[in-house]
């Protein structure tokens, strides 16, 4: 994922349940976790999806980001939609943490 100026990457959070979910989003760059409180306590209403523009979670453009989503309550599915102004877009599927 990236927040570079020519990119518009979105994290799509989908709540399949009948009750609201609350999630925290952490971004990690080449030097570790990025400081941001904007990604904390994001509400995902029941049976809906919420798109989060990743550039709204950082103070300056970053490339090669890792996105970590934690649910405080409820369940969510998460996927990144990477959109490049020149090259088009693609979906980045979730992966598990290394063992």
Automatic annotation (TrEMBL):
Q: Which InterPro entries match?
A: DUF5719
Pfam families, per this entry?
A: DUF5719 (PF18986)
Q: What is this protein called?
A: Uncharacterized protein
């Amino acid at each position: 994922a990236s927040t570079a100026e020519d990119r518009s990457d979105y994290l799509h959070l989908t709540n399949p349940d009948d009750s609201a979910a609350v999630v925290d989003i952490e971004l990690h760059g080449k030097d570790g976790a990025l400081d941001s409180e904007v990604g904390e306590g994001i509400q995902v209403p029941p049976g809906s999806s919420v798109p989060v523009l990743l550039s709204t979670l950082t103070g300056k453009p970053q490339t090669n980001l890792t996105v970590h989503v934690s649910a405080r309550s409820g369940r969510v599915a998460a996927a990144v939609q990477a959109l490049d102004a020149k090259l088009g877009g693609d979906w980045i599927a979730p992966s598990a943490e290394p063992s």
